[in-house]
Specification:
Structural class: alpha+beta
Strand content: 25-35%
Radius of gyration: 21 Å
CATH superfamily of the largest domain: Enolpyruvate transferase domain
CATH class of the largest domain: Alpha Beta
Largest sheet: 4 strands, mixed
Helix content: 25-40%
Number of helices: 13
Distance between the termini: 6 Å
């Protein structure tokens, strides 16, 4: 558990190189188990979730070396082992190791995955996809097992374009005999990044980033090098903070099309946004107005659910009424209660929507971060608020942001983090 101390009111100025994507690196690390060789990953963010994932790989007898933002995984002598329950409970993405183990060993078992409490997040789509590929799934009270199976390529049609289920099916398909066709897939950039790594490892993949993905197994037992894509949600968080506080922020090594709905929203709020090939510059006087359009979350390329909390926090002082409709996670608006403590005027509706009426000023507050992106929203609110605020962090914010306190201080914020 940690404590954030923030004295709000400062404008934010400076240049930041965006970290590697948390939601991109975790499936790629699981894919290192599928690749029977050495994987060298660059721009790996130093996050709690990455630490847990690397420890899972070590439990499976992979050799792991971490040097700065470079991670080397040697999985040539990997063995099927029991993964400690503690590690599985720390994050949602641990479920990806079921598909990875099925592809590498033909079997495997995991404890029910954990992560932030954002409402029901069933793994039935994952299990249905693996079953379609020939996996024999057995459910325990708190465990999921893939019994010794002969995986065979086939067609999997997802009832909903789930990112995690798409990734799990892609990993399992690497161990199938024959071609696998995945339909109604998630289109997120992280899906394309996983496919890029797997292709470098010898797998034949076409269609990643579209509704239909074709996968044909292949082997390349040498060394695979991969640079993790930039984190669009970390970028969105810093942009929303700068927009709300006022100032000028330059983000380097960012892919602007991945941030389009966020950048569009910030422009509607009065920010001056300049987009270049691998950077974005935002200028704001801090006097925002509410977005002209409702913010409706959805699967890519719609507004990302992970960016909704920080955008909502940026609207707390915006002139007018801002409407947010959450369509991915029913519990994603839980941070609203904490944001009200800063003086925010937020009305929640029964259809998972929030109506935010801008207030002239926010005041300091003592609050608690119970999930990753909701915790980031509290930081954005505290950076705007008058006086000194404190955020009790239940090891959530550090799961997704690398050296966030140092980054914000570099931009001019008065902020400290004590673990």
């Amino acid at each position: 558990m940690g404590l954030w101390t923030i004295r709000g009111g400062n404008r934010l100025y400076g240049t930041v190189q965006v970290q590697g994507a948390k939601n991109g690196v975790l499936p790629v690390l699981a894919a290192c188990l599928v690749h029977n060789g050495i994987s060298v990953l660059e721009r790996v963010p130093r996050l709690r979730d990455v630490e847990y994932t690397l420890e899972i790989l070590r439990c499976l007898d992979c050799k792991v070396r971490q040097e700065g933002d470079r991670v080397t995984v040697d999985s040539r002598n990997a063995q099927l082992r029991e993964i400690p329950t503690f590690l599985m409970e720390q994050m949602r993405s641990s479920v990806l190791f079921l598909g990875a183990m099925a592809a590498r060993f033909g079997e495997g078992a995991i404890h029910m995955p954990g992560g932030c409490l954002l409402g029901p997040r069933p793994v039935d789509l994952h299990l249905a996809a693996l079953t379609k590929l020939g996996a024999r799934i057995e459910l325990g009270e708190k465990s999921i097992s893939c019994l010794k199976s002969m995986l065979t390529g086939g067609e999997v049609v997802f009832p909903f374009p789930s990112v995690g289920a798409t990734e799990n099916a892609m990993l399992a398909a690497c161990g199938c005999a024959g071609e696998t066709v995945l339909r109604n897939c998630a289109k997120e950039p992280e899906i394309e990044d996983l496919a890029k790594f797997l292709c470098a490892a010898g797998v034949q993949i076409t269609g990643a980033g579209t509704e239909t993905i074709h996968i044909r197994p292949g082997k390349h037992n040498g060394t695979v090098c991969h640079r993790v894509l930039p984190d669009r949600i970390a970028g969105a968080t810093l942009l929303c903070a700068a927009a709300a506080c006022g100032g000028k922020l330059i983000l380097r090594e960012i892919i602007c099309p991945h941030l389009k709905p966020v950048l569009d929203g910030l422009e509607e709020m009065g920010c001056n946004v300049k987009k270049q090939e691998d950077s974005v510059t935002l200028q704001s006087d801090g006097a925002l107005w509410s977005p002209a359009n409702e913010i409706i979350t959805g699967t890519y390329p719609a507004f990302p659910t992970d960016a909704q909390p920080v955008m909502l926090a940026a609207c707390l002082q915006a002139d007018g009424v801002s409407v947010f409709r959450e369509r991915i996670f029913s519990g994603r608006l839980a941070h609203a209660k904490q944001l009200r403590r800063f003086g925010g005027n937020i009305c929640l509706t029964e259809d998972c929507s929030a109506v935010v009426t801008g207030v002239p000023r926010l005041h300091s507050a003592n609050v608690e971060a119970h999930d990753l992106r909701g915790g980031a929203a509290l930081l954005v609110a505290a950076l705007q608020a008058d006086g000194e605020s404190h955020i009790v962090d239940h090891d959530r914010i550090s799961r997704g942001y690398e050296f966030l306190d140092a980054t914000l201080r570099q931009l001019g914020a008065e902020i400290d983090y004590t673990d």
